[in-house]
Amino acid sequence: MFRKTLVTAMAVAVAFGATACGGGDDSSASGGSGGDGTITMGFSQVGAESGWRTANTASIQQSAEDAGIELQFSDAQGEQENQISAIRSFIQQRVDVIAFSPVVETGWDSVLLEAQRAGIPVILTDRAVDSEDDSLYETFLGSDFVEEGKKAGEWAVENWGSQPTFVAELQGTTGAAPAIDRQQGFADAIEGTDNIEVVASQSGDFTRAGGREVMEAMLNSNPEINAVYAHNDDMALGAIEAIEAAGKTPGVDIQIISVDAVRDGMQALADGQINFIVECNPLLGDQLMELAEQVVAGEEVPKRVVTEETTFTQEQAVEALPDRQY
Amino acid sequence: MPETPTTPRARRMVDLSSPVVWAAAALLALLLFNAVVNPGFFAVRIQDGHLFGSPVDVLKNAAPTLLIAVGMTLVIATRGIDLSVGAVLAISGAVSFTIIDGSSDPSSPATAAIAIGTALAVGLVLGVWNGFLVSVVGIQPIIATLVLMTAGRGLAMLVTDGQIITAESPAFTWLGRGYVLGLPAQVVLTLLVLLVVAALTRRTALGTLIEAVGTNPEAARLAGVRSRSITWTVYVFVAFTAAVAGLMTNANVSAADANRAGLFIELDAILAVVIGGTSLAGGRYSLTGTVLGALILQALTTTTLTMGVPDEYVRLFKAVVIIAVFLLQAPRIRAALGRRRRGARGVTSPDVPPTDAAADDVRPLTPAQAANSPTTAMPDAAPSPTDQGVLR
């Protein structure tokens, strides 16, 4: 607990631009690659906007500790500016490798170029960037969001395709890769199925509060809605509360597909409030540290590494829940 | 023409120079727009013993912003501002949920009482801190509260360990999702606070004292007003409203999100106050205006969501509407519009101008008139002699 608090305190300090571990102390000795051989990684996280994200953060912190990699963790609180300034401060601190989950897809070229000029390799985790020049980063480790959307869409076609289905789509943060790709994958999968129609699609910003407010408005404007496709569990959980407040039964009157499979989402799935969850595995810490070691050692790594993922029905959720780590 | 004579009388009843009137008109226009574009927007039905429908959602979702805006109105009236309310909201939610989550009996009323009490106490302490910086140390309010605005979320994250804390407690569920007489508990609580504030500031001299501090702190002090304690008190109060709003918003989704809860709510609250016609320069304030401002903001959000406006355009849409409201409230624009209207009428119906001229006599303070007749300008520019009489 105290350790975690310390880590958080450090994260906060870095997030506010204080360059922790400045001059003199021994941590800067490990800054240049070599010396005692300890790798220093600067990691800029999107924020702590969902249960998935906090699990992702915990996995990275744990794996770094296990692998003996010194982690400079920074929380961007959902703002690209914070993330860019965090990456700049990593460059100034001369870390060995920078890893980050981009808040949005675009606008990274100049800061990535700065890292490249400083000779610091960059690994993208979880979310991709939209850049012409893919030499700006070493590798992208993360889920295939289009594939996740497809899995959700395929289940929808299979289970909803036989009767008229009016889907409310709760999008993630506008402009974020998972929001764009999950929408795309889902749309591709349901194309040609006449019975399934997305009647409303709005951004709930990946948060419970957002999912709830958007769902409330949608239920009023489109009373025919009988299905929900949420781009993450937290928005689905917010939607469940809105649906209950409207006097309908989530999972029965209005069926729900969600993506992520965090604990609260899995619990709702096991309780029958959600009908299907596509997993988006946040526990990529070990894979990330392995890649970081390879990159720092100068080894060739594939440009794209996909994390291992599955899907859950209600029955599978009941079985999987006791062993769920996050 | 039977209608013409009634026009000036109607004018006399509605003071067109008041921004509150324009805020009310904007809200009305927004609602009318909804009636046309979103049929079914006003369909309110009884669902499981409580009211359900878009208007109820507007009221419920506006409640936290409105609650904070009420506190903010008083702060702004003293010529101050509080940017830290969003952070205080996050801390309040974080503290209460951490207590419930960590307790051995999360569902007991005692735990909920401790959690609520602690969260409110923390809110008050933060308010005392802000008020101290502003009133005793004399730091400019925007700077003094900026400290807590940036640091506050860090504090909230320390409390929650950077995690989103979820907890179920009946008392909390009620705060966020409960109903009183068919209305959401959030709305009723906010209304109560609003009524208490209205009674305290408008039925006693307190409101006038606050306005005096905002109009001219030095003059108010010399007139025997305890400026310092009044300033201090309003900062404590706004932090209290933020703490209550924190309990509400986090209870609404049964989760405390230190990072995102109440993000930018300080700006919404300030906007609500300003739309309501309270000047950031301090002095006169209008609680009615603030209520209208908060409702306009939330009605806008709900409207865009109901219409299904793509997220990329939502902010643009909001900006356009809010700018339109501000333009309508600007004396110069109104004066220009008024001239054009009179000009047009003069051409079409020659018998109207005399009555319009009569209406002008009761319409105070277009800038031109203000310049021409300093005596009529006096009451708005400074506390009237009677006001000062109250101060002594």
Automatic annotation (TrEMBL), chain A:
Keywords, comma-separated and alphabetical: Signal, Sugar transport, Transport
Annotated Periplasmic binding protein domain residues: 43-300
Coarse class of the protein's main subcellular location: other
The keyword Signal is assigned to this record: yes
Transmembrane intervals: none
Signal sequence region: 1-20
Compartment(s): Cell envelope
Coiled-coil region: none
Any one annotated GO CC term: cell envelope
Gene Ontology molecular functions: carbohydrate binding
UniProt cross-references to InterPro entries, sorted A to Z: Peripla_BP_I, SBP_2_dom
Organism superkingdom: Bacteria
Membership in a protein family: Belongs to the bacterial solute-binding protein 2 family.
PANTHER family linked to this entry: D-ALLOSE-BINDING PERIPLASMIC PROTEIN-RELATED, GALACTOFURANOSE-BINDING PROTEIN YTFQ
Protein's name in the database: Simple sugar transport system substrate-binding protein
Organism: Klenkia taihuensis
From TrEMBL, chain B:
Subcellular location: Cell membrane
Annotated CDD domains: TM_PBP1_transp_AraH_like
A GO molecular-function descriptor: transmembrane transporter activity
Primary localization: membrane
Gene Ontology cellular-component annotations: plasma membrane
Positions of the UniProt region annotated as Disordered: 339-392
Keywords associated with the record: Cell membrane, Membrane, Sugar transport, Transmembrane, Transmembrane helix, Transport
Membrane topology category: Multi-pass membrane protein
Superkingdom field: Bacteria
Record's protein name: Simple sugar transport system permease protein
InterPro entries for this protein: ABC_transp_permease (IPR001851)
Pfam family, one: BPD_transp_2
Transmembrane segments: 20-46, 58-76, 83-100, 112-134, 141-159, 179-200, 230-249, 261-280, 287-307, 313-331
